[in-house]
Amino acid sequence: MTRSRDDHGGAAEALPPDHTQAILEATKEVGSVLKASGCPFALVGSVAAYAYGIPVRLQHDTDFALLAEDSETVVRLLRGRGMEIVDPPEDWLVKARSGGEQIDLIFSLAGRAVTRELLDRARVLPVDSVHLPVLDPTDLMICRLAALSEHHCDYGALLPVARGLRERVDWDRVREETRDHPMAVAFLHLLHLLDVLPHTPAPGPGGPAAREGADDRD
Q1: Choosing a second label site near 147 at 20 to 30 A (CA), which of 15, 65, 110, 138?
Q2: Per-residue model confidence (pLDDT) at position 199
Q3: Which Gene3D superfamilies match (predicted)?
Q4: Which residues of the chain fall below pLDDT 70?
Q5: The whole model's pTM is what?
Q6: What is the secondary structure of 40-60 as a DSSP string?
């Protein structure tokens, strides 16, 4: 990371470089290979949020979800385009590089295998002038929330995504599918406190739970 001078003449850390356009170029290149392959796939992660109009800075990589059984075909085609392929120790993805940018080919999202049904729900959207399938907003939010843990829990990065997608997400399904993930439950509660999502009546004196208890005593 480079250093710059602040307004008072002191040294200040520069912001990480914005790789948005470079990552979009890599996304389009890989996307064109995947479209020609006939293998089902969908954009996930930050580039998917970008495709839905969320103002995110792309700095790390571009992520594609695909079926595990299609991985060898996709890897062979990407190698044929001169891309570097890296087999990481994890068994749920393959990494590639194009133009210096990293591409993640993912077969499992937050511990759940990528399925044909998941990919069939994707929406085709323009991504910097190229139309690509993008993970459905509800599935995207479920995957992002299910991936939260005690070691990785960046609500700050997730909040603008939730705000931008809130009208397009089936929040009842999100709650149902993330109810066993404490960090996800806490984030959904935060969305209610911030009025991103409508409030639900809490049990208490005079509330539904109290009235049910009174009825039981009668």
Answers
A1: 15
A2: 62
A3: 3.30.460.40
A4: 1-18, 199-218
A5: 0.80
A6: -EEEEHHHHHHHTT------S
